[in-house]
Amino acid sequence: TAKGPAAFRLREHAERLLASARIFGFREFPFTVDDIIKAVKDTVRANKVKDCYIRPLLYLDGGAWNLNIDAGKPALAIAVVEWSHYLGKEALEKGVRANVSSFTRHHPNVSMTKAKIAGNYVNSFLAKTESERLGFQEAIMLDPQGYVAECTGENLFLVRRGRIIAPHTAPVIEGITRDTIFTIAKDLGYEMIEAPVSRDQLYLADEVFVCGTAAEVIGLCEIDFRTIGDGKSGKVTREIQNMYHDAIRGRIPKYEGWCDYVD
After folding, report:
1. Taking a C-beta distance cutoff of 8 angstroms, is the pair 94, 234 a contact?
2. In the annotation, is 48 catalytic?
3. Mean pLDDT value of segment 153-171
4. Which DSSP category does 190 fall into?
5. Which tens digits make up the pLDDT trace of 6-28?
6. CA nearest to 210, candidates 120, 118, 141, 129
7. Pick the residue with more confidence: 169 or 57?
8. From the candidates 41, 50, 89, 116, which is the catalytic residue?
9. Same domain, 130 and 77
């Protein structure tokens, strides 16, 4: 930002980290949300990075070779890495190609789908690897009932006749970027709907876009060899994308509260 490095919606990310730990079964926490926020800022400052991706990790310390969460205590590690464009710079304008994966998103009673835990991403690794080996750049994952869930690391939206539709969130993480997009889209005057989305609805969409902390906002120009819209990021996608980029850089006064400045 113009005022120096800032972490976007840092408090919400820290709150979600501890919420995930509660879901996973940790009973005691040696740190608070404010402790995590301070640790993140200290790490960014110590590494002297500007544009970066931050990855806080809770792990079990002292548990030895044991599958019981009570065998150890939660410890915190924070990694920061200089960042550019997760799906490539051209993806911002042109969008990316995606396929519907052969791998199904987790059943909510198989893994805790509301928790952001590393083990859940094995599913994503399998789908993403398959997708890229087939020549696509991203994979769309269906839930156990066959409805659209999300992508490998992003939530998904589709645009149809001026309305923005978000798949229901039962089997997925309710992303912080997803919540940001809801606010931005409503402020832009778009009608937002949450509903089950079938695979064929994707093919009929005027636009499809995905969002996430790493990916930011990216259009899908093709799904399963079917061109979406005019084959590049559409008007609605670009409008939301531009406002999102301004928001995360502190350029929009009403959203500046989302920026937690490091210094």
Report:
1. no
2. no
3. 94
4. -
5. 999 999 999 999 999 999 999 88
6. 141
7. 57
8. 116
9. no
Average pLDDT in the chain: 94
Q: Which domain holds residue 112?
A: 91-248
One-letter amino acid at 49 equals: V
At 119-131, the pLDDT tens digits run 999 999 999 999 9
Q: Are the CB atoms for 29 and 74 separated by under 8 Å?
A: yes
What does the alpha-carbon distance between residue 8 and residue 221 come to, in Å, rounded to a whole number? 27
121 shares a domain with 17: no
Segment holding 36, helix H or strand E: helix 33-47
Percent helix, strand, coil in the chain, to 5, is 35, 25, 40
Structure tokens at 21: 């730990």
Tally of structural domains, the chain: 2
Q: How do 155-160 and 163-167 pair as beta strands?
A: antiparallel
Q: At 54, is the secondary structure helix, strand, or coil?
A: strand
DSSP-derived letter for residue 136 is: -
Decide if 238 contacts 188 (C-beta within 8 A): no
Per the listing, tokens 């902390």 go with: 213
**Residue 55 in domain:** yes
Q: Is 46 exposed, middle or buried (0-12, 13-18, 19+ CB in 10 A)?
A: exposed
